[in-house]
Specification:
The complex is a heterodimer of chains A (278) and B (318). Chain A has 11 helices and no strands. Chain B has 318 residues and is mainly α. Chain B has 2 domains: 125 residues, no CATH class; 176 residues, MetI-like fold (Orthogonal Bundle), CATH 1.10.3720.10. Helices cover 77% and strands 0% of the residues of chain B. Chain B has 14 helices and no strands. The chains are: A mainly alpha (278), B mainly alpha (318). The interface between A and B is large, with 44 and 49 residues.
């Protein structure tokens, strides 16, 4: 608690970011409570209406309430982003520590595989993976995890490599500690902070990837809302008559990712002063 | 240097070959092979015999590895197959789309280089000034919104305030250079924003390092004008370590271009890829992706070699 208070004072911008993230998470969690209408329910007599007392953020071409759709969009985008990064962080982290610690042939093979995955432009890779597996929430999460994990594994690997050479690790080994003990007691605790840093930093990217994929039509499908879907296809035809249709979802994405980015920067500075940005 | 070159080149080849296998496998995992896709499209009442014949025509009756070898042989002899939807050679479709993406990427790169140098330098020499803060907020903000949304907003803003619409139908540069540029400048700018932000940040921090060096203080104390110190003394050294970021940013630009093409309705590789993915037109998809992987690997290779050339420690360490 005291640490939190100190951190907030040292990194006010990070606290702002954290607050924004918490705010978006609250909207996501309580979407069904906060909504004014069913997000997929059309009101044909109220098509393309601007912000008013009934429709807080206006309506779309089917007269669906944009505020309610936005809440559910935030929910989906946050869910996809957080799940994808959790998977990528766990898988990438475990692989990184294993190949970093044991090295040798496994390392060589895994690194080639990481190189191969990283050779693909990320959006293109995710696009193809989603298409191959069929569009659904699960495949979307999986695809984003696939494109994010190589980077995470690369970073945990390099951290593990440097820790492995430290004297206290040698010391632990020389008193007869098993590999398992060395990895769990000495290596893992020291990889945690860079691992958290990279995972937080990648969260924003993951959400942007989700919105881009949904925008390209391979993510969340209509009538369900994600922040990307709300900007895709039809929304573009109506953007001149009903600009609010494209403005609000973009702002929501911006707030969420901006919050995550400055929060991530602060986390990095607090956990790893050496990498501090000037 | 030679040993490093060979090693690095070998790794690049392994990566590209591995990537080609991966693309190929993924494309075969996609539910419904192309023949089924055509049948669904045409709704022809074909007999099982005719279907089998068609599968044979596409080489789908062969085992996977033979299909792969056939495809690679095709790619190497510049015959990567025929597109399924339009039934024309993949190379023809690719050839039509490439100039659009190449022009877009090249123009974006110009924006990236010019803007990032200006912004990076100005914010470094005026550290913690009003400009610097504006830039920092804009960068983090700019990196927080999707490229396509910026594109949509720019189009909207121009429409509202200037009643201006970007030309809708693609005009090749050779046909009408002015209309073509009018059509490309805006998307190129939008596509460059992310890379400008990233590159300008790196230039800023590299510039700050240099500006704290003794020889810069000496230059100032000799009474040299700031412009001379910055332009003649600092810039040269500040750009060396970041010169290669423009290479890397090309890869990022290509990624962004895919989306920008969709927003601005330009018939480039991104458009071709997205349309082909939607139509399960796998010969197109796998070729476009293979080219993008080769492109990215080539750039990474060049960047690494440049580093090795500039910094001997890289070649020894690796």
């Amino acid at each position: 608690m005291e640490w939190t208070g100190k951190s907030v004072r040292r990194k006010p911008l990070g606290a702002v970011g954290g607050t924004l993230v918490l705010f978006m998470l609250t909207l996501a969690v309580f979407a069904t409570v906060l909504q004014n209408f069913d997000p997929v329910e059309p009101h044909y007599s109220d098509r393309l209406i601007n912000t008013n007392g009934t429709y807080w953020l206006g309506t779309d071409q089917f007269g669906r309430d944009l505020f309610s759709r936005l809440l559910h969009g935030i929910r989906v985008s946050m869910l996809v982003g957080f799940s994808a990064i959790t998977i990528a962080a766990v898988v990438g982290g475990v692989i990184g520590v294993i190949v970093g610690y044991w090295g040798g042939v496994v390392d060589l093979v895994v690194q080639r595989f990481v190189d191969i995955l990283m050779a693909f432009p990320t959006i293109i890779m995710a696009l193809v993976v989603v298409t191959a597996l069929g569009t659904s929430l699960m495949t979307l999460i999986f695809a984003i995890a696939v494109v994010q994990s190589p980077n995470i594994s690369r970073i945990t690997r390099s951290v593990t490599l440097s820790i492995r050479e430290r004297q206290y690790v040698d010391a632990a080994r020389s008193v007869g500690a098993s590999d398992r003990r060395v990895v769990f007691r000495h290596i893992l605790p020291n990889t945690i902070s860079p691992w958290i840093v990279i995972a937080t930093a990648e969260l924003g990217t993951a959400i942007l990837t989700e919105t881009t994929l949904s925008f390209l039509g391979v993510g969340i499908q209509e009538p369900n809302a994600s922040l990307g879907t709300m900007l895709a296809g039809v929304a573009q035809q109506y953007r001149a008559e009903a600009p609010w249709m494209v403005i609000w979802p973009g702002i929501a994405i911006g707030v969420a990712v901006f919050g995550l980015n400055i929060f991530g920067d602060a986390v990095r500075d607090l956990l790893d002063p050496r990498q501090r940005d000037r | 240097m030679k040993a490093y070159l060979v090693r690095r080149l070998g790794l690049a080849v392994v990566t590209v070959v591995g990537a080609s296998m991966l693309i190929f496998t993924i494309m075969r995992v996609i539910p419904g092979d192309p023949v089924t896709a055509i049948l669904a499209r045409a709704e022809l009442g074909l007999t099982p015999l005719e279907i089998a014949k068609m599968r044979e025509q596409f080489g789908l009756h062969l085992p996977l590895h033979e299909q792969y070898i056939q495809w690679i042989r095709g790619v190497l002899t510049l015959d990567p197959g025929t597109s399924i939807v339009r039934q024309i050679p993949v190379l023809t479709e690719f050839g039509r789309a490439l100039p659009v993406t190449a022009e877009l990427t090249a123009l974006s790169l110009v924006f990236v280089i010019v803007l990032s140098i200006i912004v990076g330098t100005v914010t470094a020499i005026r550290q913690d000034s009003w400009w610097d803060y504006v830039f920092r907020v804009v960068t983090i903000g700019g990196l927080s919104v999707p490229v396509f949304w910026v594109g949509i907003l720019v189009v909207l803003a121009l429409l509202f305030w200037f009643n201006y619409t970007n030309p809708l139908v693609y005009v090749p540069f050779t046909q009408d250079p002015l209309t073509n540029l009018q059509q490309f400048l805006l998307p190129a700018f939008v596509g460059s924003i992310r890379s400008v932000a990233v590159c300008a940040r790196m230039i800023r921090s590299s510039m700050l390092d240099i500006l704290n060096e003794d020889y810069i203080r000496t230059a100032y104390s000799k009474g040299l004008h700031e412009s001379v110190v910055v332009l003649r003394h600092a810039m040269k050294n500040a750009f060396l370590p970041v010169a290669t970021i423009y290479g890397v940013s090309l890869i990022g630009l290509f990624n962004g271009v895919v989306v920008v093409e969709i927003v601005f309705n330009l018939p480039g590789l991104g458009r071709l890829l997205v349309d082909s993915v939607a139509a399960r037109d796998y010969p197109n998809v796998q070729f476009v992706i293979l080219v993008s992987v080769v492109f990215a690997s080539a750039i990474n290779l060049l960047v690494d070699l440049t580093y090795a050339l500039l910094d001997p420690r890289v070649r020894v360490g690796a």
